[in-house]
Amino acid sequence: MAKLDKILDYSLKGKTYPVKNAEQAILNANPTYLKDDWEKSCFKNLKSNVRKHYARRQNRKCAYCRITISPDGSGNAIEHIVPRIKKPQWMFVQHNLSIACINCNSSKGVENTMMQHENNYGHSPNHCPTDTNEFKIFNPHFDKWSDHFEIQDEFFLVPKPNTKGPDTYKLCNLHRYIIVLDYIDELNVRKKSFKSITKRLRKEKRPHVKEQLELAKESILEMIENN
Ligand SMILES: [Zn+2]
After folding, report:
1. How many domains does the chain have?
2. Could you tell me the distance, in angstroms and rounded to a whole number, from the CA of residue 176 to the centre of ligand 1?
3. What tens-digit pLDDT sequence spans the chain (227 residues)?
4. How far is the CA of 38 from the centre of ligand 1 (A)?
5. Degrees (nearest 5) of the Cα angle 220, 177, 148?
6. Radius of gyration (Cα) for the chain, nearest Å?
7. Which range of residues forms the domain containing residue 182?
8. Residues 175 and 134 in one domain
């Protein structure tokens, strides 16, 4: 059977979107100061290219939870690792961008993701950190996913202690049952998974995780019955 951690462990290192000259000219002519500048029509093509680029480079997996996203990123969020409300000037800095599933993107919300308060960093796009140590959470451009997360018992996502994993797990709510379901689909091991989830449920003490595992179990049962 394919090992899930291998499938999920892509990296964006050195794979930022190569902004075209025409796109750079638009960016130069339209500096961003407010989070809603993101919606300006002049950025439409650039955003569409960015979305496709990262969806492909990310092996069609969310930057954080690594569930499957659409091949062109449609329906998925262009994720700002440092939220654009914190640093609107950085909204098109390529190493601040990736594609995330809607759930990771909205759970992460507008929290500060840098080690220091955002005011301690300059506003210009050049001040967006390129050092992984400046980030509290996992950064798909600088970090190796498998250094921060692991897959236990074939398809359970677990953060590695003393890494950025635990903070990312918390911020993005990575205990969601749909992550388990997506991994199971990736492995095509639905029937077998039912037993593993039941086993996992027995030793799980945290109510909020238990609740999500119950939902996963229900959905698996449904999928098995539908097939
Ligand atoms: Zn996600």
Report:
1. 2
2. 9
3. 457 877 788 889 999 999 999 999 999 999 999 999 999 999 999 999 999 999 989 988 999 999 999 888 888 999 999 999 999 999 999 999 999 999 999 999 999 999 999 999 999 999 999 999 999 999 999 999 999 999 999 899 999 999 999 999 999 999 999 999 999 988 888 778 888 999 999 999 999 999 999 999 988 887 777 65
4. 21
5. 125
6. 19
7. 156-161+171-226
8. no
With respect to residue 151, please indicate whether it lies within any of the assigned structural domains: no
**Cα 46 to ligand 1 centroid, rounded to whole Å:** 23
Q: Which residues of 27-54 are buried (b: 16+ CB within 10 A; e: fewer)?
A: beeeebeebebeeeeebeebbeebbbbb
User: Residue 21 C-alpha to ligand 1 middle, in angstroms?
Assistant: 31
**Ligand 1: centre distance to CA 62 (Å):** 5
Distance 106 CA to ligand 1 centre (A): 9
Distance 85 CA to ligand 1 centre (A): 20
